[in-house]
Amino acid sequence: MEGRRGPQGSGRPFSLAVVTLLPCPGHLPAAVRLQCPRMSAAPPRLLLPLSRLLVISRPALWVNTIGTLVTGVWLTGRLYTLDGGVLALLLYLTLPFNLLIYGLNDLADREEDARSSRKGGWQGARLRPEEEGPLRRSTLLLNAPLLLGLAMWLPPAATATLLLAAALFVGYSLPPLRFKARPFLDGLSNVAYALPLALPALALGAPVPWAPLLALMSYSVGKHAFDAAQDIPADRAAGTRTVATTLGTRGVAAYALAWFTLAGALLWPVSRLTALALWLTCGGMALALLRRPAPEQAGRLYPLSIVTPWIVGSVAGVQLVYLLARGQWDGL
Fold this sequence. Notes:
The protein is 64% helix and 0% strand. It is mainly α. It folds into three domains: 9-39, no CATH class; 46-208, Tetracycline Repressor, domain 2; 210-314, UbiA prenyltransferase (Four Helix Bundle (Hemerythrin (Met), subunit A), Up-down Bundle), CATH 1.20.120.1780.
């Protein structure tokens, strides 16, 4: 029996005419899609959607920026402030600044991240090639106008400190500096994580809390070294030289322990309880890696490393809030 035909001619021209008029969804069979004149690749994105930007910015690590800023406010002797500059900084240090930190890092390390088992989840995004351009544009759009506005609003010292932090993070990830691939400079550049602690004092005209600031710088250098230990195999395979690939697992564990020891010593005159919390958590995980010096052990300890800012920050924060509420703290 002859198949059903269209109004004019055979069934095949009629089917083609229908396919031509349809929007040609992507789930059609490949043979049909090849005949579809309207079927073409989707236009490239200009920007990434907000949900994807949030994943790339690693919200679990925002405590390293906004938590540091809030602690800086408490260290000035204020429980809170309604100063417009500080509130603007607080907003900027959420998605925009963390996207600058981790978005650029993920762009520069896309090939290494593709081989890293810990990427692709809460520990960091695994970027697709088509996301590179939209991520660059999104990062620039979210950061450049806000940095310019803050530079016009904040006092010069606060502006210089904020721009220094941004420059260090950009230099960490991107050439020609790319501190990440320069052993020891990779960790030393991470002092940028501590700089938000000084911003409230500089914005409000209060004394800079030097001892906590230097302690946080030391902690940041040590934490970077410790966290890099688990990436030794991937970094060596990619030809990336870091403090961890240079010192090896045992050496970098000892190096991190030295920085954690210094951080606690700097905190001791200000808050012995906070110093003890830092030594117990950070020093403890460094000693555990020294006992079993292997990248796999570093990977198992990494979740503890992730929560150390929450643990040590909570110990410091509870004390500060208690003293401020009782009127027993007026700043350093």
